[in-house]
Design a protein that fits this description.
The complex is a heterodimer of chains A (260) and B (306). With 260 residues, chain A is an all-alpha fold. Chain A is built from ten helices and two strands; from the N terminus they run H-H-E-E-H-H-H-H-H-H-H-H. Chain A starts with 13 loop residues before the first helix and ends with a helix. Chain B is of the alpha/beta class. The chains are: A mainly alpha (260), B alpha/beta (306).
Chain lengths: 260, 306
C-alpha cells in the first residue's frame, strides 16, 4: 500500500508566484477589465432585460436581480477554472515557467498555493466587475452586496483546485473540454444560476445539493438581493471543504508531474 | 565554503524510472572553485544527475549533499545559493528582459536598491543593457541564452549549474558565452555543466567526469584523461571518393580504428606512417594531437546512440 501524499506545506514566498501573475495581469489590465465588464453587460442586458420582460419575477425577485446574483457566483467559477486550466497548463508545460521557478528556493507546494490564490484573486476581480455593472443596472439592493466580495474569492478558491488538478493530468489543451462539458456546464445549468433549484425533479435536487456551485449561488444571492442569508455557515463549510480538498489534490498531482 | 571543500558530494546515487536506472550508483565530488564538466552521450544520465542535485528528482538510493545541505531534504536552502541555466528556454515570455531578472530575484526573496544595482550589472555582463525593455520573444537565440545566464546569477550564487549551455548556438555566440563563463570562474564561483561538445569541455573545464549508462566511467583533468586512455598522436586517413583505405606500411605501431571510410591511427610516433603517406595523392590525411573526443569515443564506444 502506498501512503497518501503528505499535505501541502507552502512557505510565505508562495506569494511571489501570486505577485508574478498580478504583474502580468496589470500589463494587460485595460483589455482584461474591458472583458470583465463587457461580457456580463451583454448577459445582463440580453438575458436580464430580454428574458426578464417575459418572466417578470423569479423566486420573489426581479429576474434581473435573480440572474445577476447567479452570474456573479458562476462567473467566479468559470474565471478560476479558466485560469487554473489554460493559464496554469501554459506555465507548467509549453512555457516551462515552473521549471524555472523550481530552480529557485520555491517548491511545488509554493507554486500551487500561489497559483490557487491568483485564480481566486481573478475570480474576485471579475465577479466584482459584474457586481458593479449589476448595481448600475439597478439589480443590487444595497451596500450589503459588498459582503459578497470575499465570497467571490472563496468561490474562486473552491474551483481553482479542481482546475489545477485537470492541468496536472492534461496531456494537451483539448483535455479541458471534457471538464467544461461534463462538469462546469452542467453545474452552470442546474445549480440555480438561471432558475431556482427547487424547480428540478427531487432526485436531481439531491445531487445538486452536493455541488459547490449550488452553495456558491445560495450564499451570494441573498447578499446581492438584500435578503437575510439562509444557512450561511453550511454554504461556507461546503465551499471551504471543496477548496481544501482541491488544494490537497492539486498539490499532490502537480508534485507528481513536476518532481519525479 | 563547505568544510569538505566540495560543493557537491554524491555517494552511490541511484535514480530509476520504471525499473530502468537512469543514474546507477554515481559517486561525484565537485570541488569548490573551477569548472567541472559532466560528459556523456545522450541518455548517459547527465540531466538526471543535475535534476537530483537541484532536488527536482528524488533519488531511489544513495546520499547527496549540495553546498553542505542534504538534498532533497533541504534542497530549497541549497538552491538559494545556486544558479541554474536549464536546457532550452525557460525565460518568462510575459516579461521584458529587465523584468525577467527583477521577478526572478523576488523568488529568492531579493528586492530593493541592491537588487536594482545587481540587475544593471548583470545586463552589462550579458551585454543586454540596450535591450533592457525588450520583450523576451524579440531576442535572438544568443541573447536569450545570455539572459538565462544573467538570470542564474541574480542571487549571486556560489555554484552555477548549466545544462548544455551552448547547444544550438552558432560559433560566434558560443565563443562569446565561453568567455562569460570563464569570467564567472575567475570570480571564484564553481561551475558544473553538462555538455556533449568535447571542445567545450576542453576549453572550459578543469575537471571532467565521463558518464555512460548511468555510471561514471572516468574522471580527471582533460590532459590526464588523454594521457591515460589514448596515444598522444592521431593520424586520420581518408581515401578519395568513398573507397576503402588500403593497408599502409608504417601502421604497425598504431592502434587502428575504422569508422565508415575514415581510418584513425593512434600512435606514440607518427613519423613512419607520415613518411608512408608522403606522395600518396589518392589519400587525404590529418595529423593532430589526441584530444578529449578521442578519449570519449574510446570509453563510450563509436556506435550510434538514439
Amino acid at each position: 500500500m502506498r501512503r497518501p501524499p503528505p499535505p501541502p506545506r507552502p512557505h510565505a514566498r508562495a506569494l511571489t508566484v501570486w505577485r508574478r501573475n498580478v504583474l502580468v495581469w496589470r500589463k494587460l489590465m485595460g483589455a482584461a477589465l474591458a472583458m470583465n465588464f463587457g461580457e456580463p453587460v451583454l448577459y445582463l442586458l440580453g438575458l436580464g432585460y430580454g428574458l426578464g420582460f417575459f418572466i417578470g419575477e423569479m423566486a420573489g425577485l426581479p429576474y434581473l436581480t435573480f440572474l445577476a446574483s447567479g452570474i456573479v457566483a458562476s462567473s467566479a467559477m468559470t474565471t478560476a477554472s479558466f485560469e487554473g486550466m489554460y493559464s496554469v497548463y501554459t506555465r507548467m508545460v509549453p512555457q516551462r515557467t515552473y521549471e524555472a521557478l523550481l530552480a529557485t528556493p520555491l517548491t511545488v507546494d509554493d507554486i500551487v498555493a500561489g497559483e490557487l490564490l491568483w485564480c481566486a484573486t481573478k475570480s474576485l476581480i471579475s465577479s466584482s466587475a459584474i457586481l458593479a455593472v449589476a448595481a448600475l443596472l439597478g439589480a443590487v439592493s444595497g451596500w450589503q452586496a459588498l459582503l459578497a466580495v470575499p465570497a467571490f474569492f472563496l468561490i474562486g478558491l473552491c474551483f481553482a483546485g479542481p482546475a489545477v488538478v485537470m492541468s496536472a493530468l492534461a496531456p494537451n489543451y483539448d483535455f479541458f473540454e471534457y471538464y467544461f462539458t461534463l462538469v462546469l456546464t452542467p453545474m452552470l445549468l442546474v445549480c440555480g444560476v438561471f432558475y431556482p433549484v427547487d424547480a428540478l425533479p427531487a432526485a436531481l435536487q439531491a445531487i445538486v445539493q452536493v455541488l459547490p456551485l449550488t452553495h456558491a449561488v445560495a450564499l451570494v444571492r441573498p447578499l446581492v438581493a438584500g435578503l437575510p442569508p439562509e444557512q450561511p455557515l453550511l454554504h461556507l463549510a461546503v465551499l471551504v471543504a471543496y477548496a481544501a480538498a482541491g488544494w490537497y489534490a492539486a498539490t499532490a498531482l502537480v508534485r507528481r508531474r513536476l518532481v519525479s | 565554503m563547505e568544510r569538505s571543500g566540495y560543493v557537491v558530494e554524491a555517494r552511490e546515487l541511484v535514480k530509476r524510472f520504471g525499473g530502468q536506472a537512469a543514474v546507477d550508483g554515481v559517486d561525484l565530488s565537485v570541488p569548490a572553485g573551477g569548472c567541472l564538466g559532466l560528459l556523456g552521450p545522450n541518455g548517459a544520465g547527465k540531466t538526471t544527475t543535475l535534476r537530483l542535485i537541484l532536488g527536482m528528482a528524488r533519488p531511489d538510493a544513495g546520499s547527496l549533499r549540495v553546498l553542505g545541505e542534504p538534498v532533497p531534504e533541504r534542497a530549497e536552502r541549497a538552491r538559494a545559493r545556486m544558479g541554474v541555466v536549464p536546457q532550452g528556454d525557460t525565460l518568462d515570455p510575459d516579461f521584458t528582459v529587465e523584468e525577467n531578472l527583477r521577478v526572478y530575484a523576488r523568488y529568492f526573496g531579493l528586492h530593493g536598491p541592491a537588487v536594482e544595482r545587481r540587475i544593471r550589472a548583470l545586463l552589462d555582463f550579458a551585454e543586454l543593457a540596450g535591450r533592457a525593455q525588450a520583450r523576451v520573444q524579440s531576442l535572438s537565440g544568443g541573447m536569450r541564452r545570455r539572459l538565462a545566464v544573467a538570470r542564474a546569477l541574480v542571487n549571486d550564487p556560489e555554484l552555477v549549474v548549466l545544462d548544455e549551455p551552448t547547444t544550438g548556438l552558432d560559433p560566434q555566440v558560443r565563443h562569446h558565452l565561453w568567455a562569460r563563463l570563464r569570467a564567472l570562474v575567475a570570480e571564484g564561483r564553481t561551475l558544473l555543466l553538462t555538455t556533449h561538445y568535447m571542445e567545450e569541455a576542453e576549453r572550459l573545464c578543469d575537471r571532467v567526469v565521463i558518464m555512460d549508462r548511468g555510471r561514471v566511467l572516468e574522471q580527471g583533468t582533460p590532459a590526464e584523461l588523454v594521457a591515460r586512455h589514448v596515444e598522444p598522436e592521431v593520424v586520420e586517413i581518408r581515401a578519395a571518393r568513398g573507397e576503402a583505405v588500403p593497408a599502409l606500411p608504417g601502421t604497425g605501431a598504431c592502434r587502428i580504428e575504422t569508422v565508415g571510410d575514415v581510418r584513425y591511427c593512434y600512435t606514440h610516433d607518427a613519423r613512419p606512417l607520415l613518411a608512408a603517406l608522403e606522395g600518396r595523392g589518392d589519400l587525404t590525411f590529418l595529423h593532430r594531437p589526441a584530444n578529449l573526443e578521442d578519449v570519449f569515443l574510446r570509453l563510450t564506444g563509436r556506435e550510434l546512440r538514439e
